[in-house]
Design a protein that fits this description.
Belongs to the SorC transcriptional regulatory family. It comes from Mesorhizobium prunaredense. Keywords: DNA-binding, Transcription, Transcription regulation. One of its GO terms (molecular function) is carbohydrate binding. By secondary structure, the protein is an alpha/beta fold. It has 13 helices and 10 strands. Helix 1 packs across helix 3 and helix 5 packs across helix 6.
C-alpha cells in the first residue's frame, strides 16, 4: 500500500518537474526526455499529467482586441469601474475562462503588501476561480464571507468558498456561521444580532474589494437546486418578478429587491458600498443575462468579469 502511494507521489513529482521544464523553462519534449533520462513519449505523458492534475495552470496574458473593445464599451455604457471580457469558446458554455480571469484578479490584489479586506460571495464560478489560485502567504489581508455556510440539512454549504480560500492563501478568514436562509424573519434577526456575528458583518461592510456570483431564477436556479429554497418559494419569487440573486438577495429586472418571500429570511451581509469599494460580479451565459443586466444597470455591482458572447448581448440589450 505504502509503496503504491510512494510510486504515485513520485510520478506526480516527475510530472511537476516535466511541466515546469516545458511551460516555465521553455524546454522541448526532447530536451525534457534527455534531462530526465526518459523517452520522449514518457515526457509527453508527464507534461499532460501535470496539466490534468492541476499541477500546472496555463494563463494567456495577451489581450485580445475584440475582448478589449467589448470591455471598454461595457465600462462606458454602464459606468463600471472594472470590466474584463474573456474569449468565448464556440463549442462550450464552460465558465472556466471567467474563473481563470477572476483568479488572476484575486491573486493580483492579494499580492499587494498593503493590507486589504476582501469579501467573498458564493457560487460555482467563484468556487472554480478560488481553485485556480496558487498557494500564497497573505497574513496581512482579511477575507470575509458575505454568506452563511450552513445548508438546510446542517451540512457545510458546498459552494461557500471561504474555507477553501483561507487554506489557499493563508489569510485571516472570517466565515459566517449561519444558515444561508433562516427559517423565519424572527430567527434571522436573532442570528444576526449575536455578538460573534456582529464583527463579521461590520468587517464585510468595510471590504475594499468584493467578488460575487450572480445566480439566475430559472427552473435550475442555484438557490433551488442546492436546496436553500423550495419549489413553491422559487415560483413565488418568479411570480413577484425575481430574475436573479446575489448572495441570496433576489432582485427583479430593474435591480429592485423583491419584498418578502425569502428576502426577509436571507442571512447574508449586505453588499458593500459600490461608491467606496469595488464589487465585482463573475457571470456569463444567456440564462444569467437578465440578472447581469439588472445588476449593472442598478449598480448592484460596479465591476464585471464575463465572456464575449455575454458582453455583446449586454450591449445589444441596453
Amino acid at each position: 500500500m505504502n509503496s503504491r502511494q510512494d510510486s504515485g507521489s513520485n510520478r506526480l513529482d516527475d510530472a511537476a518537474r516535466a511541466g515546469w521544464l516545458y511551460y516555465v523553462a521553455g524546454n522541448t519534449q526532447d530536451q525534457i526526455a534527455s534531462t530526465l533520462g526518459i523517452s520522449r513519449q514518457t515526457a509527453q505523458r508527464l507534461v499532460s499529467l501535470a496539466v490534468s492534475e492541476g499541477l500546472i495552470k496555463v494563463r494567456v496574458d495577451h489581450p485580445i482586441a475584440n475582448c478589449l473593445d467589448l470591455a471598454a464599451r461595457l465600462k462606458s455604457r454602464f459606468a463600471l469601474d472594472l470590466v474584463e471580457v474573456v474569449p468565448s469558446d464556440p463549442a462550450s458554455s464552460s465558465t472556466i475562462g471567467v474563473a481563470v480571469a477572476a483568479a488572476a484578479e484575486i491573486e493580483r490584489r492579494l499580492r499587494s503588501p498593503t493590507p486589504i479586506v476582501m469579501a467573498i460571495g458564493t457560487g460555482r464560478t467563484l468556487k472554480a476561480a478560488i481553485e485556480q489560485l496558487p498557494p500564497m502567504e497573505c497574513p496581512q489581508h482579511k477575507v470575509v464571507s458575505l454568506t452563511g455556510n450552513i445548508s438546510p440539512d446542517g451540512s457545510a454549504a458546498f459552494y461557500n468558498v471561504i474555507f477553501t480560500m483561507a487554506d489557499r492563501v493563508k489569510a485571516r478568514s472570517f466565515p459566517m456561521p449561519l444558515p444561508v436562509i433562516a427559517s423565519s424573519p424572527q430567527e434571522r434577526e436573532m442570528l444576526l444580532s449575536q455578538p460573534m456575528i456582529q464583527p463579521t458583518l461590520a468587517l464585510a461592510a468595510e471590504a475594499d474589494v468584493t467578488f460575487v456570483g450572480i445566480g439566475d431564477l430559472g427552473p435550475k436556479a442555484p438557490l433551488y437546486e442546492d436546496g436553500f429554497i423550495s419549489e413553491s418559494e422559487l415560483k413565488a419569487l418568479q411570480k413577484a418578478g425575481g430574475v436573479a440573486e446575489i448572495v441570496g438577495w433576489v432582485f427583479d429586472r430593474e435591480g429592485r429587491m423583491i419584498d418578502g418571500i425569502t428576502n426577509d429570511r436571507v442571512s447574508s451581509a449586505s453588499l458593500p458600498s459600490r461608491e467606496k469599494s469595488l464589487v465585482i460580479a463573475l457571470a456569463m451565459g444567456e440564462r444569467k443575462l437578465p440578472g447581469i443586466l439588472a445588476a449593472v444597470n442598478r449598480r448592484l455591482v460596479n465591476g464585471l468579469i464575463t465572456d464575449e458572447r455575454t458582453a455583446a448581448a449586454l450591449l445589444a440589450a441596453s
